[in-house]
Amino acid sequence: MKAVILAIGLALSTQTFAQTGISENWNGIVEEAKGQIVYFNAWGGESRTNNYIRWAAEKVENLYGIKLVHVKLSDTSEAVSRVIAEQQAGNTTNGAVDLIWINGENFATLKRAGLLHGPWVGKLPNFPLTDPENNPEMTTDFTVPVEGYEAPWSKAQVVFYYDKSLTENPPTSMPELLKWAKTNPGEFSYPKPPQFLGTTFLKQALLELSDNRDALYKPVEEANFEEVTAPLWSFLDALHPYLWRSGRTFPDNGPALRRMMADGVLSLAFSFNPNEAASAIANSELPSTVRTYVLKGGTIGNVSFLAIPFNASHKAGAMVVANFLMSPEAQAHKQNPENWGSITVLAMDKLSSEDRARFDALPNPVGGVTTQGLQQVVGELHPSWIEALEQAWQERYMAH
């Protein structure tokens, strides 16, 4: 069955814009998009994200006559499963998912099965503003070539944040974190995998502790999984007794970690948004004594993207929305810590002086991480490692 699905998918993935009825001309695409309803499947677990998408929906309706509907997901895999189910049912033209906020294993799954529309990103007028020729992260997703099947939307990097009124010397490495946790029991935790931030903690720890980093950037099938991951499990076995609730239960997600920091339950937490703590301070969600930093060996960074399924009902509308979300106006609004604080994918030297001024004018609130810290980026693992790590974690810590 999988072979049949893959064969059908690969055939679909070679379709051209002409075959799908979409204009080759951008003005024609914009005209076709008028009046379309675009169902944007995106994580809905964060109020800032939801508010930003609501703002974007008002914009695209006023500018292009497009109605943008946020389909709130608890996990991106929900949208991926929907697309796969529609393909299996023979729905090749009237899909319920028009646009997905996606990256990593979810993108790799759909691309491998040929269930993405495209290539289309080269059609977007704003795509050159990311300077893809000089920024390979705009064209590679967790080591997988994008090849025009998804548009860059947001940059992220793991940062840690702490309350300096509760702890003066936060840990700057995983071994230091273990020592710190023993001295400050119950004051740190991480979300339960497969929640993406929890899985990210596993990846960050593995990258730092593994003796064979090169294996992590290749398919997991090519590695001795038990040997490569042994340092991770030894670390977690030692760490868990000193976590919040002694590692018997875990927070649900990143917002839960932030609330626990606000309540003084935790004195150390982490995020995939470098501006999360600063934004929370600006919005009175965290005390002004919270500070953000990057581990001394660097932290995982990635780009998240926007993809269109092969059978999306409103492809033109999805393309116009994606192009707007990549615009300097939308990117600056998103990077504003008072709105979301998500880092732009745009290259400043590709912008006009007027558009650069949008970013120069953004506030720089208390608690943020330095630009130098954000240059210490460690690449993402090959996507095949994600499910393997999640399954191994579940078997080791949740099976009893």
List the helices and strands and how they pair.
Layout: H1 2-13, H2 26-33, E1 37-43, H3 47-64, E2 67-73, H4 77-88, E3 99-102, H5 104-112, E4 140-141, E5 144-145, E6 150-157, E7 159-163, H6 174-183, H7 196-209, H8 225-239, H9 254-262, E8 268-271, H10 276-282, E9 290-293, E10 299-307, H11 315-325, H12 328-335, H13 353-360, E11 377-378, H14 384-397
Parallel strand pairs: 1-2, 1-3, 10-11
Antiparallel strand pairs: 3-10, 4-5, 6-10, 7-8, 7-9
Per DSSP E runs of 2 or more residues, the count of β-strands stands at 11
CATH topology of the largest domain: D-Maltodextrin-Binding Protein, domain 2
Structural class by SSE content: alpha/beta
> What is the percent of helical residues?
25-40%
Task: Give the overall shape, derived from the CA principal axes.
Answer: globular
Please indicate the percent range of residues in DSSP E strands (runs of 2 or more).
5-15%
- Could you tell me the mean pLDDT? 90
Low-confidence stretches: 1-19
CATH architecture of the largest domain: 3-Layer(aba) Sandwich
The CATH class of the largest domain turns out to be Alpha Beta
CATH superfamily of the largest domain: Periplasmic binding protein-like II
Tally of separate helices: 14
Terminal Cα separation, in Å? 34 Å
The total number of structural domains is 2
Mind describing the biggest β-sheet? 6 strands, mixed
Whole-number radius of gyration?
A: 21 Å
- SSE run: HHEHEHEHEEEEHHHHEHEEHHHEH
Signal peptide: 1-18
InterPro entries: SBP, YnjB
Pfam family, one: SBP_bac_8
Organism: Pseudomonas kielensis
